[in-house]
Amino acid sequence: MCGIVGYIGAQPAVDILLDGLTNLEYRGYDSAGIAVNVDGQVELYKAEGKLQNLKDIVNAKKSHIEKSTIGIGHIRWATHGAPTTANAHPHSCNCGRVAIVHNGIIENYKELREKLEKQGCTFRSQTDTETVAHLVATKFAQTNDLTEAVRLATKELEGAYALCVIHQDVKNTLVATRRNAPLLVGIGEGEYYVASDVPAIISYTKKAMYLDDNQIVTLTPDSMKLIDSENNVLSQKIETLPWEPVALSKMGYKHFMLKEIHEQPDVVRNVLSGKLKAIDEPIKLNEVTLDKDKLKDLNRIQIVACGTSLHAAMIGKYIIEDFCGIAVDVEPSSEYIYRKTITDKNTLVIGVSQSGETADTITAVRQAKKQGSHILIVTNRPDSTMAREADSLVPVNAGIEVSVAATKSYMAQVISFYLLAIYMAEVKGVNNFTELKHELVVLPQKIEKVLAHKEDIQTCAKKFSSAKDFIFIARGINFPTALEGALKLKEISYINATGYTAGELKHGPIAMLDESMPVLSILMSGKVYDKILSNSEEAKARNARMIALTDSTDEKLNDLFESIIRVPEIDELLSPALAIVPLQLLAYYIAEFLGKDVDQPRNLAKSVTVE
Ligand code: AGP
Q1: How far is the CA of 407 from the centre of ligand 1 (A)?
Q2: Does the beta carbon of 194 sit less than 6 angstroms from any atom of ligand 1?
């Protein structure tokens, strides 16, 4: 979603701001802007569309703009007001002396705007953010102190925000604060950086301080002061960021998505490392602090997540119920938070999120925490807001994922659920997982085999790329694979794709089948194989164009299916972890063939930080 970068120091701010915004581009956005202070004047530069549009404007005046050694920058994903230049950040006040960038949503912006308009403020945008600019300017007029102005202004704000503010009259000072939206300060030599996410600043510094809710930081080139909302000075917790800049390189691949798909064998090895030491040893999950007796007493598990993480959670449900015999409900976080949920101290609530910043999932786990449940977070970002809500943590170790369409983080979540389910079962005294553990260990080689035959999938993608709709069918543990395969295709190719349980096909969706409709059957060996085969026959009888994704070598499939994507044989229980790889590739190659913006699909953001 939106991204923030700030800089104060001795270097030209503009290069650092644009570089930082470039490294946040992957999050998805629709306009961009920066504010700098040149020769004592705050200047705003903004553009709608791609960051390149802003770069073109800025580069035309580069020798002027680069005189500024302080600045703030933003990429915006529109929530209030269309993605236009006027609505792009930074925003300012009547006199133009304040500049402000904001992530999040100011929920009471309408009331604030009304009040400020009555006081004479003239609004130039439809955004909620502009109210904050006017509010800070009003408070500054009363106090002549930028930190105090921000502190007083935030007291009137409801909702979520990460804010970065500069003021023309307070040269060499940058103020930043947050509530329910991430923000960190990067620390250099005689310079400071502010960012909503690590990639924006990692190539400049690894020394950083994360802000907690309601903390306000005041930065000058050689000082940093941290206070709380009551003006108490706080001690600063400086840490070293565990990130490498190389993660942001495509490493020769055409797109980040393709690179990330190819990283999956190593991702599996990483996730298993240290947790699955030997197939005859119990799984070790050190960050799961749930007392073993309490774990045995659990009567219910609820898993909350969104999008791709929700699909990983659905696989989690299947295997936890199978291995541990505990009832598991999976629900989209955005539904969970708007109903009366029944949880207690014997309920484990699991939040699953790649980014750890998805607003709905954060709200859902906070809601459950209030009701006394133990909160376990499965996330790729142990430094995230959600991770900080966790009683127990399962860090999934996929490394930074740049492409908006999640691939390797899904793999890491799915493998983490296998480890968690086996861990819980072993605590409960169930110990028959030697074969499955062996399958987990050899899984990376099987994924490598699929990747080695990607040309076959590319050929299949080309063949079906003109389809307007796509249906994915599966049963049992691979139903979430069908949903995830369909989601990947929708997200990056904009083809209308839907996943169905194969048995449901004849209860309605079959009406849509004709010679223009591809139906992809996920036909992995195991107890539902024959059933899906029958469902595929039914679809074929309605003239659908049949594609199989299978680990079977049965030659008879050639009569039924127009295209067959083959994967190595695998235990049905682990098959979702292998079957998803060709579906990711299929979606990728179709989108690439159609010339779509694979890594930054339209309308999507990498982390959805608004409810
Ligand atoms: C996945 O390809 C999507 N970008 C999206 O569905 C994503 O999984 C969802 O927004 C949840 O994000 P999270 O895992 O960061 O919470």
Answers
A1: 10
A2: no
**Integer Cα distance of 420 and 401 in angstroms:** 22
Q: How far is the CA of 78 from the centre of ligand 1 (A)?
A: 18
Residue 430: strand pairing partners: none
Q: How close is the Cα of 606 to the center of ligand 1, in Å?
A: 7
One DSSP character per residue, 416-430 reads: HHHHHHHHHHHHTT-
Distance in Å, CA 143 to ligand 1 centroid: 43
Task: List, as one string, the DSSP characters of 554-596.
Answer: -TTHHHH-SEEEE-----GGGHHHHHHHHHHHHHHHHHHHTT-
Contact at 8 Å (CB) between 400 and 259? no
What is the phi/psi pair of residue 496, to 5°? -70, 105
Tell me the CA distances in angstroms from 558 to 264, 471, 480, 525, 565, one per residue in order. Answer: 29, 19, 26, 16, 11
Kindly calculate the radius of gyration of the chain based on its CA atoms and give it in whole angstroms: 26
Atom of ligand 1 nearest to the CA of 607: 15
Alpha-carbon dihedral of residues 536, 538, 543, 546, nearest 10 degrees?
0
Q: Which atom of ligand 1 is nearest to the CA of 407?
A: 2
- Give the dihedral sign, CA 285/286/290/296: positive
Closest CA to 60 of 70, 50, 52: 52
Report CA(168)–ligand 1 centroid distance (Å): 39
Q: Please tell me the distance from the alpha carbon of residue 227 to that of residue 230, in angstroms, as a whole number.
A: 8
Known active-site residue 606: yes
Ligand 1 pocket check for 536: Cβ under 6 Å: no
Is the distance from the beta carbon of residue 353 to the nearest atom of ligand 1 less than 6 Å? Answer: yes
Whether the model clears a pTM of 0.85, i.e. scores above it, the answer is no
| Average pLDDT of adjacent 10-residue blocks, the chain of 611 residues | 93 97 86 96 96 96 96 92 93 96 93 96 95 97 97 95 96 93 94 94 94 96 97 95 74 92 95 93 92 89 97 98 96 92 88 94 93 94 90 92 95 98 95 94 96 95 96 98 98 97 93 95 96 96 97 93 97 98 98 95 80 71
CA proximity to 9, closest of 218, 166, 190: 190
Please tell me if the CB atom of residue 405 comes closer than 6 angstroms to any atom of ligand 1.
yes
DSSP string, 536-552: HHHHHHTT-EEEEEES-
Q: Take atom 10 of ligand 1 and give the residue whose Cα is closest.
A: 307
The minimum-distance atom of ligand 1 relative to the CA of 379 is: 14
Ligand 1 within 6 A of CB of 358: yes
**Do the Cβ atoms of 578 and 570 come closer than 8 Å?**
yes
Catalytic, 2? Answer yes
